[in-house]
Amino acid sequence: MRIEIWSDIACPWCYIGKRRFETALDGFAHKDDVEVEWRSYQLDPSLPYHYAGTETEYLSQAKGMPAEQVRQMFDHVTQQAAGEGLDYDFDSIVVANSFTAHRLLHLAKTHGVMSQAKEELLSGHFEKGRNIGDAEYLAEVAQTVGIDADEARRVLSTDEYTAEVKADIAEAQSLGANGVPFFVIDRKYGISGAQPPEAFAQALETAWGESQKLTVLAGAGSSADSPAPGKGGDETFREGAVCGPEGCD
């Protein structure tokens, strides 16, 4: 089973959603048969690579919200994060454009450590006050997850993986995602938001059950007059001889 997760490193609910999904996946009987792929998304592509103000000032200006209302929102999100074992510190957040960090994630994907890099970046941004727009910090993250820091610096000094990040964002839009986190299971089920673990658990069970159902191309109810389509459209399956409880054909 394949699960794609669109999220932004600068999205506080994305980190909370990651934890809740991981809780559900950890309790899923078939977790070893689940492939998780992180996909890129940006909540604010227009954000400069470094914003001089605080997170409160940025959201207050960007959303036209009073600063006190923004702080109340932060308090609520911080409490929700704490419930998942996360220690958010909105006062120390460095407001920065996340695009370059998403390019690093695609580099990490080629090394098979995308999930580890995602965790490092989210923790760095929301818990440790690190600058996700700074190439030196990103090189540090790369080294932490086993990628040569010089390789990361070289990649980030070019436009490598820019197309991949843009393709992820475009695909999210084509799927109808109007916010993140956005979870897509086997391209059949979409889940929006940082749902409770039990909701993710139910979705995993439902999707797994559907994936195990067999589509019968021929058998009970079919006949030579009503053949089922065959592979490639140049063959047909017709009623075959079978044995059942009452005997054989």
TrEMBL record:
Residues 3-204 form the DSBA-like thioredoxin domain. Keywords: Isomerase. Residues 219-229 have a biased composition (Low complexity). One of its GO terms (molecular function) is oxidoreductase activity. The keyword Isomerase applies. Residues 219-249 are annotated as: Disordered. The keyword Isomerase applies. InterPro entries: DSBA-like_thioredoxin_dom (IPR001853), Thioredoxin-like_sf (IPR036249). This is Predicted dithiol-disulfide isomerase, DsbA family. It comes from Brevibacterium sandarakinum.
